[in-house]
Amino acid sequence: MALIEIPVDPNIASQKFQIILDGALFNLRFFWNTRQDTWAIDISNDAEEPLIQGIKIMPNWMPLFRYQIPGFPEGDFIVVDTTGGGVPPERTEFGTDARVKLLYEEAA
């Protein structure tokens, strides 16, 4: 099983991109929620149909493990705090080259 780092830019507060996970195309949207001071993720399929919305990004956690949604990526998303502290990321502390990263472990 391959481990993929999801390429989130920590300097952009709201971003959306397409990515292939386990052979299927998905749209990922990441945004900084100013009310809750937290990062969140939306995932939709290649037809832009929402699969899940507004899930908080919390370190050392698998944010989507409990969801069984048809058409959802088959692998696991894993949020990692590279310092081991487990502290939720601040606005610029989540993404590529940041303290907190989102990884995806492919199912096959």
N-to-C CA distance: 5 Å
Rg, nearest Å = 13 Å
Helix content: under 10%
Number of strands: 7
Give the structural class: mainly beta
Number of domains: 1
Would you give an account of this structure?
This protein is mainly beta and 108 residues long. The chain has one domain. It is 0% helix and 44% strand. The protein is built from no helices and seven strands. The strands form two sheets. It has a four-stranded antiparallel β-sheet, with no helix packed on it. Strands 1-7-6 form a three-stranded antiparallel β-sheet, with no helix packed on it. A hairpin with a 2-residue loop joins strand 2 (14-21) and strand 3. It is globular, with a radius of gyration of 13 Å.
Question: Which structural traits does this protein have?
Answer:
single chain; 108 residues; mainly beta; 4-stranded antiparallel sheet; 7 strands; 44% strand
Give a topology summary.
Elements: E1 3-5, E2 14-21, E3 24-33, E4 38-45, E5 50-56, E6 76-81, E7 100-105
Antiparallel strand pairs: 1-7, 2-3, 3-4, 4-5, 6-7
